[in-house]
Request: fold
Amino acid sequence: MSERRTIAVTVNGTRHEKDVPVRLTLADFLRGELRLTGTHLGCEHGVCGACTVLVDGRSARACLMLAVQADGHEIMTVEGIAPGPDRLHPLQEAFRDNHGLQCGFCTPGMLTTLIEFLRDNPDPTEREVRVAISGNLCRCTGYQGIVKAALDAAQRMKAART
Ligand code: FES
Ligand code: FES
Reply:
């Protein structure tokens, strides 16, 4: 029988205490235990970026992290980005308005990656955006709409701050 541990994690502002197998990945914990299926699984070995979440504000591959490693930490998933049920985050609005997604499979990882990036670099160049998302694979868009969306989001967020 696999070993288990009790962990306490805060996900999108809500604290959860759960008994989990020590080998359970954070991605499977979020999707299977908490039913937060916005975190997508593509490659499951750290290449595609679809599973990217923020751990204490820093992007991390949820497929490469164990749930027990999240014990005591704060996680933000794509479900936690919007400020309310009827309002989108400016980054989400920019994705919608700039055709930053097609099938949407890569989108949760793109958004979480860009949330961290735009927080650290609020006025990026196009090249900096391209480097920032270079660890996230998109098989649909050709990246043009995503880059445009990120640059547009930076302007929207700047306007919101002034
Ligand atoms: S599913 Fe985690 S990086 Fe691809
Ligand atoms: S929108 Fe389909 S993988 Fe990016």
Strands lie at 4-11, 14-21, 52-55, 58-61, 74-76.
